[in-house]
């Protein structure tokens, strides 16, 4: 018995909407015009250039990944059946669609494998455009990603995600024939290619059933694909969840499962079933999902949903921005296979399926946005995702850490762009911190507050290009001395997150390089703890004069030169004036070519530092003024370099050369003859 009337196509980079007709309608028009007068005869076409390259690669691929060829063809057949199911339900004239099924028929004697479906089929123009001449955006991306790996290591199993799965047929076949008839036509067509540079298309004589039949002429070393055992094994492994019967031809034996696990009670679904369903939805071969979520809600809106998180974030590896991977079904009938309205953009990495009894079948892409049922499903689903992540953080910290490492940046994106859910998201984001010795992103804002001493009114952070640079920042000295934790912003997005949040649990998020750094109460004591000697020295040896000379030398490249109360060892540091961008934020904006107003910053000088004390002594003799000024300039440059900013190289090198000459001269004065 067939349990449902619906369908679940796997999402790809370019999934087509099943509402309406296939992509070929639009894209093939130009070709149709060019060739209209020839459509009754056999015609030869050249494959589009990237497809040619792809075919070359696939036909020389290694054995281990060849199963995916059958998987991809089954997936295409299933998509075509999904579309036909939808057409039958919405188009009066197609009501009598007949059985929707896939038949896989091994013909061992002829060394052939046939995959047949009763789906929508293809018109001549669709055949020409879909299987050969249209440069699917995916093929270039796929090749690019493969070319970065050595050919024998290349992960061909990802092919389905790039919208070029059909061509994987040439991994096991040296000739492929496609016979097809569209539900919109009486006439059938045959496509044929040996996978080299060209393919032919010609009309089929006589009647042809609706749908498509793919005949693979198997390569000599792929004969095993024409055995029932091999077919059953592959179907069990990759295609159990294809929601249409897959029969082993020429008989009637159904060899797949077709169970709609999302309507089953959770405890009756095994891990293996979830895993296989994930593989079906994601096209991710043998991969296990990192976590999954299964929800069944009865009121106020009835819906079932299963969502999966993949173990890796392909965006991090230079893949293009992920497409949404959640399919929407109404009463088990697929409405849309990349439904953006179900989850916010920052959760685009989740795969899954949502099925509701409360949605009409004719809901279209345009009306989805204003649909109140969808809005309520979305709110409920989002809450479930947040709950699942909170639970994961609590119960499975290692899994949660993997999630943060892979997808944390997208959760941070959410904290920036989704003000309504910002509070929930702020509990899920993680930072590096001075509490750790390495750059692990595992400190939440709540962890930070739980450790903070009583009375601390702010959450302190510091950004920089990387952990090593941040650790060298002199602004940290007082925090180290006082044992106050500082969050390290090592991901470029972190600064934007802090800006968006502003506060957490009523505590102001404060960059420690801001000029109004307010430390907890003990700070005042620490100040008064400073050795009196330093104050005296400062007064005696002209600290005020040193500041004055620094001001003269640096000029308006800083807003102010003043005494520091935050440094313990370093001679000076740069801080931001009130309300300005942090240094890290300025760097990021500059990298993005945004116009950033040059911030005039404040140079703070530490009177207790040995170098400054020496300079104070030197002020007694005005002969040293020029040297003190040079030192001021160099200290300012040093502070910039520590923050990852390169000051004027020529000026810097000239000055260092001067210092070196002077130092060398002291060691070995030049005797001028
Ligand atoms: N059995 C079929 N019936 C009808 N159309 C098909 C069939 N197989 C392929 N097509 C058409 O050819 C197109 C290209 O197929 P191909 O497998 O290369 O990419 P895709 O199906 O778009 O992406 P993916 O492989 O990720 O599912 C499909 O989008 C579909 O329009």
TrEMBL record:
Description of how the protein assembles with itself and partners: Homodimer.
Q: Where is this region: C?
A: 588-673
Domain (Histidine kinase/HSP90-like ATPase) spans 65-222
Function text: Molecular chaperone. Has ATPase activity.
Which Pfam families does the annotation name? HATPase_c_3, HSP90
**UniProt gene name:** htpG
Which intervals of the chain are annotated as region A? 1-365
Q: Name one GO molecular function term.
A: ATP hydrolysis activity
| Chaperone recorded as keyword | yes
- Where does the UniProt annotation locate this protein? Cytoplasm
SMART domains named in the record = HATPase_c
Name the chain's protein.
Chaperone protein HtpG
**What domain of life is recorded for the organism?**
Bacteria
Which residues hold ATP? 72, 76, 117, 122, 130, 137-138, 161-166, 365
> Which InterPro entries does the UniProt record give?
HATPase_C_sf, HATPase_dom, HSP90_C, Hsp90_fam, Hsp90_N, Ribosomal_Su5_D2-typ_SF
Name the predominant localization. cytoplasm
Question: Which keywords describe this protein according to UniProt?
Answer: ATP-binding, Chaperone, Cytoplasm, Nucleotide-binding, Stress response
What family is it from? Belongs to the heat shock protein 90 family.
Q: Name one GO cellular component term.
A: cytoplasm
């Amino acid at each position: 018995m067939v349990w449902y009337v619906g369908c679940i196509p796997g999402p790809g980079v370019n999934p087509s909407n099943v509402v309406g007709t296939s992509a070929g309608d639009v894209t093939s028009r130009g070709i149709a015009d060019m060739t209209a007068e020839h459509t009754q005869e056999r015609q030869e076409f050249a494959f589009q250039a990237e497809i040619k390259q792809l075919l070359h690669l696939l036909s020389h691929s290694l054995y281990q990944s060849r199963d995916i060829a059958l998987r991809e063809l089954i997936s295409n057949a299933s998509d075509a059946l999904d579309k036909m199911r939808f057409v039958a339900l919405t188009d009066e004239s197609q009501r009598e669609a007949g059985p929707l099924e896939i038949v896989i028929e091994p013909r061992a004697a002829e060394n052939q494998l046939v995959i047949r479906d009763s789906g929508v089929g293809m018109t001549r123009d669709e055949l020409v455009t879909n299987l050969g001449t249209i440069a699917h955006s995916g093929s270039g991306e796929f090749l690019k990603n493969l070319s970065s790996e050595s050919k024998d290591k290349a992960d061909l199993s990802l092919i389905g995600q790039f919208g070029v799965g059909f061509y994987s047929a040439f991994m096991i076949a040296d000739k492929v024939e496609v016979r097809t008839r569209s539900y919109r036509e009486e006439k059938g067509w045959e496509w044929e290619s040996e996978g080299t540079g060209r393919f032919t298309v010609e009309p089929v004589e006589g009647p042809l059933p609706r749908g498509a039949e793919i005949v693979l002429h198997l390569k000599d070393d792929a004969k095993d694909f024409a055995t029932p055992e091999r077919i059953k094994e592959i179907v069990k492994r990759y295609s159990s969840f294809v929601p249409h019967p897959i029969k082993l031809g020429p008989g009637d034996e159904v060899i797949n499962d077709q169970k709609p696990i999302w309507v089953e009670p959770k405890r009756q679904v095994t891990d293996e079933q979830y895993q296989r369903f994930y593989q079906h939805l994601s096209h991710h071969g043998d991969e296990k999902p990192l976590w999954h979520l299964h929800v069944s809600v009865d009121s106020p809106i009835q819906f079932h949903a299963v969502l999966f998180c993949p173990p890796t974030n392909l965006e991090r590896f230079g893949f293009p921005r992920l497409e949404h991977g959640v399919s929407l079904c109404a009463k088990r009938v697929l409405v849309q296979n990349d439904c953006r309205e179900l989850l916010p953009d920052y959760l685009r990495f989740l795969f899954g399926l949502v099925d509701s009894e409360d949605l009409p079948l004719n809901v279209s892409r345009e009306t989805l946005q204003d649909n109140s049922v969808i809005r309520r499903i979305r709110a409920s689903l989002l809450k479930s995702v947040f709950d699942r992540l909170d639970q994961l953080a609590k119960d499975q910290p290692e899994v949660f850490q993997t999630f943060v490492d892979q997808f944390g940046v997208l959760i941070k994106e959410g904290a920036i762009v989704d003000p309504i859910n910002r509070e929930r998201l702020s509990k899920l984001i993680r930072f590096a911190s001075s509490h750790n010795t390495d750059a692990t992103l595992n400190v939440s804002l709540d962890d930070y507050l739980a450790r903070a001493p009583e009375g601390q009114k702010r959450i302190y952070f510091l950004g920089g290009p990387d952990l090593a640079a941040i650790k060298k920042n002199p602004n940290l000295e007082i925090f180290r001395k006082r044992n106050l934790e500082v969050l390290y912003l090592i991901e470029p997005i972190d600064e934007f997150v802090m800006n968006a949040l502003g506060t957490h649990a009523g505590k102001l998020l404060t960059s420690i390089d801001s000029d109004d750094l307010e430390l907890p109460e003990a700070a005042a004591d620490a100040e008064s703890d400073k050795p009196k000697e330093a104050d005296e020295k400062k007064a005696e040896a002209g600290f005020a004069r040193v500041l004055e000379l620094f001001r003269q030398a640096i000029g308006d490249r800083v807003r102010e030169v003043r005494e520091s109360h935050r440094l313990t060892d370093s001679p000076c540091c740069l801080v931001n004036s009130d309300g300005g961008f942090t240094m890290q934020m300025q760097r990021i904006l500059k990298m993005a070519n945004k116009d950033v107003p040059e911030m005039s910053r404040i140079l703070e000088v530490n009177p207790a530092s040995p170098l400054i004390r020496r300079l104070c002594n030197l002020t007694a003799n005005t002969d040293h003024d020029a040297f003190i000024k040079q030192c001021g300039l160099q200290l300012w440059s040093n502070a910039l370099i520590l923050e990852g900013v390169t000051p004027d190289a020529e000026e810097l090198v000239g000055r260092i050369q001067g210092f070196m000459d002077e130092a060398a001269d002291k060691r070995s004065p030049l005797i001028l003859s």
